[in-house]
Amino acid sequence: MSLLSDVLVILLNGLQQGAIYVLLAVGLSIILGTLKFVNFAHGALYLVGTYAGLFVALNVPLSNGKLAEWGFSSFGLDIGFLAALLFVPLFVFGVGLLMERYLARAFYDRPDTDQILVTFGLAIVVQELFRVLFGSNSLPFEQPERILSVGSFAGIPVSGPIALPIVGNFPQWRLWVIGITAVLVALVYLLVEYTDFGLVVRAGTRDAEMVRLLGIKITRPYIVVFGIGAALAGVAGVVGGPLNVVNPTIGTNILVPAFLTVVIGGVGSIAGAVLGGIVFGLTTAALVSFAPAWSQVGLYAIAAIVLLTRPQGLLGDEEVTP
């Protein structure tokens, strides 16, 4: 029973870690698969989402950085985690719209190397801006205890341990992260696959010139796609912030695993991004438990094996291989 319990704990931890990768990878995948734009600033959107979530949900003390030097002793509105979960994705969606309109659109017809250089440069600028403002120290992003607390209603507990069959006590918030990710990915999949908007986006991916000849302004759905991808990165920052350290380097740290998730799943495939995230999450959880020193190496080994045996990814189509 102990072995089965350990296996189930690793499975749940892997699904939770994979959920963060999935949120980032789905956004990356639809941007790369639809717009053919290599966005190395996607990690910066995750960084913005994390700090924005911290700002909305909590009020944390500041000890270094320019804000502290300017007399700000604390940072945050402290209006609750649910507010962060609602408003931060909208904010990052808006950031994504601006990024598409004033940066990405000018590089759609440029080589991939140009796209990589400009977006990676932007990511470094954003990281250093946050480092200047908040310093290099990590900020505490506490897990929410309850949500939907209204009047006499105490709210729904989302933190602390919950007793699960066989597993025993397991952190509730990890289960909420898995559930939130599943709902959001399902909504994005339905939007892309079963709506007129999704039909236009997919048609534009195949033949943008023909879509324009039909009188459809393809730039409008494209900018929305970019915004949706950005919003998913913002959600990942909000739900993943309480599970990780929060400092200016988190965006660049998670960028490579997110891109590897897209690569092994298949560019442009939402199902592939989900599968890739789960594979990476389970691999990380298993290696952290049994061989911590190899936890990062394992991700690159899996990516190498997949690329050697199936270059288009596990669920990718050959025509969208970058």
Mean pLDDT: 90
Strand proportion, as a percent range, falls in: under 5%
Number of distinct helices: 12
Order of helices and strands: HHEHEHHEEEEHHHHHHH
Low-confidence stretches: none
Lateral arrangement of strands in the main beta sheet:
1-2
CATH class assignment: Mainly Alpha
Shape: globular
CATH topology title = ABC transporter involved in vitamin B12 uptake, BtuC
Number of domains: 1
Structural class: mainly alpha
E-strand count: 6
Largest sheet: 2 strands, antiparallel
Helix fraction?
Answer: 55-70%
Query: What is the radius of gyration?
Result: 20 Å
Seen as an oligomer or otherwise, the chain set is: single chain
How far is it from the N-terminal to the C-terminal residue, by CA? 46 Å
Keywords: Amino-acid transport, Cell membrane, Membrane, Transmembrane, Transmembrane helix, Transport
Protein name: Branched-chain amino acids ABC transporter permease
Subcellular location: Cell membrane
Pfam families: BPD_transp_2 (PF02653)
